[in-house]
Design brief:
Elements (H helix, E strand, L loop, with lengths): L11 H10 L2 H15 L4 E6 L2 E9 L21 E7 L7 H20 L2
Antiparallel strand pairs: 1-2, 2-3
């Protein structure tokens, strides 16, 4: 995971330091571990017809410091922020289908975390 982007997980200064140190993947792993311990699952594999089609990372805004840099900030504390998603290349032509399959899976994960 040597080139793991840290678009949301760290504030800009910490992200720059992690990249300068040469292994942002370690910071990504640390973020996932901390989020799992403090909040719960922060990722979801997305399946289409029983095949893995991609994944998504999500967390409340408190675990996404860089979210404060956007003009739409602040994000409500009771929200779950979809931070990133990846679609397996073989499913790229069916992106609409992947999104259709992902939406209820991600909604269910968010609702379970928020206690709704």
């Amino acid at each position: 995971m040597a080139s793991a982007p840290l678009d949301w997980e760290l504030d800009p200064v910490a992200a720059e330091r992690a990249c300068a140190a040469g292994d942002p993947g370690l910071e990504k792993e640390a973020w996932v571990s901390q989020t799992l311990l403090e909040w719960g699952s922060c990722g979801k594999l997305i399946y289409v017809d029983g095949m893995s089609a991609g994944f998504a990372l999500y967390a409340p805004p408190a675990y996404a410091p860089r979210s404060m840099a956007f003009p739409t900030s602040p994000i409500s504390a009771d929200a779950v922020l979809l931070m990133s998603a990846h679609v397996v290349p073989s499913f790229a032509g069916a992106l609409d289908r992947v999104v259709d399959e992902a939406e209820p899976q991600l909604r269910a994960a968010a609702v379970s975390h928020l206690g709704g």
